[in-house]
Amino acid sequence: MTNAKLIATGTPVLAIALCTGGCITVNAPEEPIVIELNVNIRQEVIYRLAEDAGNTIEENADIF
Amino acid sequence: MTKQTNFMRGVRRLAVGALALAAIGGMASPAAAQRDPAYAEARSSGQVGEKMDGYLGIVGGGSPELRRLVNDINIKRRALYSQRAQATNATLEEYALTAGCQAILATAPGEKYQAPDGSWQTRGSGRPLRDARCP
Asked: Which of B113, B36, B87 lies closest to A52 in space, CA to CA?
């Protein structure tokens, strides 16, 4: 199974040394933003697990 | 057999029935533990939201305490997913993604969740925007 990882790394904005009025400084996020798309997980698998997952959530309400 | 003994047998049967009911009541799992007040507050104020992958995410910056709280919850969720995935012959990712579908569906109006395009959305009164594979 492959997880297509889209890693969007915050591009550090280089401070322009001779920046005059109207300049906005944007700070890059500390960690890269990672979105994992489990593209290979099939709908039928999700349907099979749905009830069990629903119960798990209900029975562990303190962490959901 | 006299009427008296039949009556007594009936009483005994009722008593046994009542005991059985009491036992069933006692066996029922105790009410699921409630959310920690800090977590409940972070949810209702939209500082945290349900991600598609089954884990909790921080919306915006997030203080060190909030990061710790979210990390702690996600570690517990992962352990739970791992355990249930094994029990249901699924992979951790499959189980987590399914839980994500359900957790997003279970959000209350005003709470945050992650839409399929990755953006944070505020749950309205209608159905949330979810992955096409979600039940």
From this structure: B87
**How far is the alpha carbon of B23 from chain A, nearest alpha carbon, in Å?**
21
Nearest to B32 among A3, A36, A60 (CB): A60
Q: What is the pLDDT of residue B96?
A: 97
- On whether both B20 and B78 belong to a single domain, the answer is no
Question: Distance between CA B106 and CA B121 in Å, rounded?
Answer: 14
Question: What is the per-residue pLDDT across B16-71, written as a single tens digit (0 to 9) for each?
Answer: 545 444 444 444 445 568 999 999 999 999 999 999 999 999 999 889 999 999 99
Q: Nearest CB to B94: which of A35, A49, A62?
A: A49
Q: Where are the beta strands (DSSP E) in chain B?
A: 48-50, 56-58, 112-114, 120-122
Query: A41 near B93, Cβ under 8 Å?
Result: yes
Based on the structure, what is the number of domains in chain B?
A: 2
- Separation of CA B126 from chain center: 20
Same domain flag for B39 and B91 = yes
SS3 A64: coil
Token digits for B57?
């995410």
Name the strand (E) or helix (H) holding A8: strand A4-8
Instruction: Evaluate whether B36 touches B44 at the Cβ level (below 8 Å).
Output: no
Specify the pTM: 0.67
